[in-house]
Structure formats: C-alpha cells, structure tokens
C-alpha cells in the first residue's frame, strides 16, 4: 500500500492492521510514536490536530492541574507551555512522562489501537460519537483517566476524594459528545477546588506536628541539660525541621533522631550499670561495718572479761593462758578487718571498672559521631562535617579578624570517565584527587567531599591570592602525577573557584560566589582556577 494514498473511510481495525504491516515492510522500529505517525498517514489524520472540545478540556486541565509538589509543578508548567504553543503532541508527551515518573505503566501502542479500533457502526443503544473526537483525542482522554485513577486517587488525602477521582476517570472514558465533555469539565473543576482545600488542611496538619516536635525537643533538652552532645544534636534537629520539608530533609532529621536515641540508650545503660555497682558497694560497706561493729563489740566485751580475770588470778601460768586467749581474739579481729578491707577494695575496683566502661562507651559514641561526618569512600569530611567546620572557622575568622578562603573543586569530564572506564575507576580518580590535596594543603586546612565529584576546601588564615596559589599547586601536582588504570596513564584534571570570606557572610552566599567562579573556569576551557568576584 502506498503511504501517500489515504482513505478516511477505512475501518479503524483495517487501518491498525495496515499500520503494523507497513512498519514491518519499511523495517521501522514499532515504537508508539512511529505507530501513531504511520497510522495518521494511512488514515489521513493531520498530526497535532484535535477537536475544539478536547482542546477546551485540555486547557482547563492545565489550569487546574495540582502544583503542591515539585513533580506536579513541573508537569503543570509543561502542560501550560504546550497549551500556549498549541502543541498537543508536546502536551501528550508531558502527561506520559508524568505517568512514567509516578511508576504507572502505560502501553501506548495498545491505547492507540483501542482508541481507533472501534466498530465503524455503533450499537443501536450507543450514543453516536462526534466525528471530531478521534486520533489523539482518544489517547489523551485515556491518559487523563489513567492519571486520575492511578496517580491522583492514590495521592489524595481521604477515601472520599480518592473515590471521586476514580469516578471522574470513569466519566472521562464515557465522553461521547459535547454535553458529556461540558459536564465532565464542571465536575473536574469542582474536584480541583476540593483537592486544593485538602492540601491546605494537610499543610496545617504538618505545621501542627512540627510544633509538637519542637515542644518535645525543648522539653528533652531541659531534662538532659547536662549532656552537651544531645543538646547540640537537638539544636541541629530544630534547624533541620525549620527548613522547607522534602524527602532529603526528613531523612536528615530521622538520622539526627536516631543518633539522639542511640546516645540515650548508651547513657541509660551506663547509668544503670553505675547505679547497680554503687548500690552493691554501699550494701557491702554497710554490711562489713555492721559485722565489724559486732566483732569489735564482742572483742571489747572479751577484753573486759579477760581484764577482770587477770585481776583475780595470781598464778603466772594462768595469766599466760589468758594472754594467749587475748592474742587469739585480737588476731581474729585483725583478720576480719583485713577481709573487710579486701571487700571494700574489690567493691571500689568494680566501681572504677564501671566508670571506665562508661568512659569507653562515651569515647565510642564520640567516634561514631565523627564517622557520621566522614565520607566513606575518601576518608575525608562529608558535606555535614564540612558544615560544622565552616561554622567553627567562620566564627574564628570573624572574632580574630583573620582571612578565610573557600575553594570549590570539580573534576573535569568526570561523567565521561565513568561512562568510559566504569564507576570503579571514577571512585579511584576521586581518591587520587584527595591524595593530591592532602599532599599540598596544611594540617589546619579543612578538606571535604561536597558531593559527587565536587570537593570543598577551607583555608584559614589565608588571603585570596595565597589560596589561589595553593589550589594551583594541587592542579600542577595532578598534571605531573598521572592516574594509572590497567597500566594506562590517564590525565585527571579539575577546575576550581576560590572566594574569600567576608565577615558576616552566610555559607550559602560564599558558596554561590565560589560556584560562580567554578562555572566560569569550566566555561573557559576547564583545568584552571578562577577567583570569585
């Protein structure tokens, strides 16, 4: 069949079969887009053309589309742009992309065939379909139904709204004429108003939960006022939840809470052991004192008895016998005192051991806290550790009126390196750069992996000119010392931006200036260092 020969009277089933046949003959990949284009060529449908009724519906959908999450906002912007351009193919692509992002599997080819392969003569009981609604109209309506049924219905708060979304999905599938379309638009607009009110309620609920969490953190800080570590973690947690919430922020807050709970468990365990040991030591001491008191009381009574006996006896042998008995009783008391002393020393040793165990647990906890701030691949600070170091160094620079510089480094063509040689080689390249940095910077300089192939360096007591010289030495070191992979020498380079801290400047502003300089270094050809404005 010649593709230029178009017959608009063909049955949709015949067109679908002919489309599949032509795809095979022309050896065209049977993708949904290729299928649609060839189908329209055979059927005589002009591309990117829909009915006025459908266009009205799609315009309303773009206006009322939810925007309360970044994904929804991006989709809404794409839909509005497509409407402004009257590019319905682009509109369809935005909906398909949104459905794919939300893990909804949509078989476009099946939808196209189902939309077109309808009986040419409807049943007597069916409503006659307007001739304008065909081609892409059927697909877009089905996509809208899919979105309402499988995405909106699963994300709304409350079963009532979810059921209404599913009802709208059923309604859009049954649209056959203009009155049906107008009725759906009215119901859809009402649903969007309810959805917006529901989102506002969700935001109020979120704010209420955050207020409760802040109250809980304040009370916990008061109860554990002597533990500075927990107070610092609670302060970090409060700062975290005060920012606009997203998945990453919630995960970070969860990590802070886990660390606090872990610390509380260790404190509870340590205090429990110390309490038991102290109770045992005090009980043993009281018991020994009671026994010693009884023994010394009995000894005193016996001494008085022997004293009276000696006064009554004149025979030297009897006196010697009494003295021997006195010595025997004295030795017995002395042994008891020695035993009591041993018990007391043992109890004290046990108490010291418990204290040492507490100190060991606190040391281990401190080490675990430091590990949380360490990048597992390179062994240097991670972003979180760098943020803490920045606060310390910025305060010191402001207090002492000394210079502080911030350098941002980014490995050149890192994605190409990963794609060509694999992620393992990319990881080794990161470690290679870290080695070069450590060989060049001072002990007091702060080095961290800021994210991906990006590294941040703080240079205390260093002016901008000196900082650029330091980073340039690192760059020269990298060009002299080649990176080896399978005995092949690979040249790893980086670009850098350096900014000097201004007193009172926020970390975000300092980062933006250094990042701007880094961007210019990349744009100017890479493998160079540029100072920030």
TrEMBL record:
Sequence ranges assigned to domain GGDEF in this UniProt record: 402-533
Catalytic function, reaction form: 2 GTP = 3',3'-c-di-GMP + 2 diphosphate
Superkingdom, taxonomy of origin: Bacteria
Enzyme Commission number(s): 2.7.7.65
SUPFAM superfamilies attached to this UniProt entry: Nucleotide cyclase (SSF55073)
Species of provenance: Nitrosomonas oligotropha
Record key words, sorted: Coiled coil
Name this polypeptide is given: diguanylate cyclase
Enzyme class: transferase
PROSITE patterns per the UniProt record, alphabetical: GGDEF
GO molecular function: diguanylate cyclase activity
One family name in Pfam for this protein: GGDEF
Positions in coiled-coil regions: 316-371
């Amino acid at each position: 069949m010649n593709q230029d020969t178009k017959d608009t009277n063909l049955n949709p089933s015949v067109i679908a079969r002919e489309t599949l046949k032509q795809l095979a003959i022309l050896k065209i990949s049977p993708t949904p887009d290729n299928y649609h284009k060839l189908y329209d060529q055979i059927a005589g449908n002009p591309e990117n053309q829909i009915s006025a009724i459908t266009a009205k519906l799609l315009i309303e959908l773009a206006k009322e589309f939810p925007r309360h999450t970044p994904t929804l906002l991006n989709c809404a912007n794409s839909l509005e742009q497509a409407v402004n351009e009257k590019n319905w193919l682009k509109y369809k692509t935005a909906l398909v992309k949104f459905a794919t992002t939300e893990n909804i599997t949509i078989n476009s080819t099946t939808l196209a065939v189902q939309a077109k392969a309808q009986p040419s003569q409807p049943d007597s009981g069916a409503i006659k379909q307007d001739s304008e609604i065909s081609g892409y109209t059927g697909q877009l309506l089905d996509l809208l139904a899919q979105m309402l049924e499988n995405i909106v219905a699963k994300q709304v708060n409350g079963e009532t709204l979810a059921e209404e979304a599913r009802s709208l999905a059923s309604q859009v599938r049954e649209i056959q004429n203009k009155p049906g379309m107008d009725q759906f638009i009215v119901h859809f607009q009402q649903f969007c108003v309810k959805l917006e009110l529901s989102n506002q309620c969700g935001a109020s609920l979120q704010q209420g939960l955050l207020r409760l969490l802040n109250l809980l953190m304040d009370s916990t800080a008061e109860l554990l006022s002597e533990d500075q570590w927990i107070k610092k973690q609670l302060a970090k947690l409060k700062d975290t939840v005060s920012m606009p919430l997203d998945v990453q922020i919630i995960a970070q807050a969860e990590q802070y809470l886990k660390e606090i709970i872990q610390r509380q468990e260790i404190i509870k365990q340590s205090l429990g052991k110390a309490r038991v040991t102290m109770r045992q030591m005090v009980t043993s001491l009281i018991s020994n004192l009671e026994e010693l008191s009884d023994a010394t009381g009995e000894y005193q009574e016996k001494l008085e008895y022997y004293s009276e006996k000696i006064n009554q006896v004149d025979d030297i042998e009897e006196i010697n016998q009494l003295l021997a008995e006195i010595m025997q009783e004295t030795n017995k008391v002395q042994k008891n005192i020695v035993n009591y002393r041993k018990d007391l020393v043992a109890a004290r040793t046990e108490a010291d051991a418990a204290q040492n165990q507490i100190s060991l647990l606190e040391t281990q906890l401190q080490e675990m806290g430091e590990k949380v701030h360490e990048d597992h691949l390179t062994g240097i600070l991670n972003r979180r550790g760098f943020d803490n170091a920045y606060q310390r160094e910025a305060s010191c620079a402001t207090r002492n009126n000394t210079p502080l510089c911030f350098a941002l480094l980014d490995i050149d063509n890192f994605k190409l390196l990963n794609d060509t040689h694999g992620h393992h080689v990319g990881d080794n390249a990161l470690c290679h750069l870290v080695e070069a940095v450590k060989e060049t910077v001072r002990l007091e300089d702060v080095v961290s992996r800021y994210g991906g192939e990006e590294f941040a360096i703080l240079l205390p007591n260093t002016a901008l000119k000196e900082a650029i010289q330091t980073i340039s030495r690192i760059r020269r070191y990298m060009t002299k010392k080649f990176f080896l992979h399978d005995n092949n020498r690979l040249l790893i380079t980086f670009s850098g931006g350096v900014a000097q801290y201004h007193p009172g400047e926020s970390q975000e502003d300092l980062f933006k200036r250094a990042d701007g300089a880094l961007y210019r270094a990349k744009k100017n050809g890479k493998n160079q260092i540029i100072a920030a404005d």
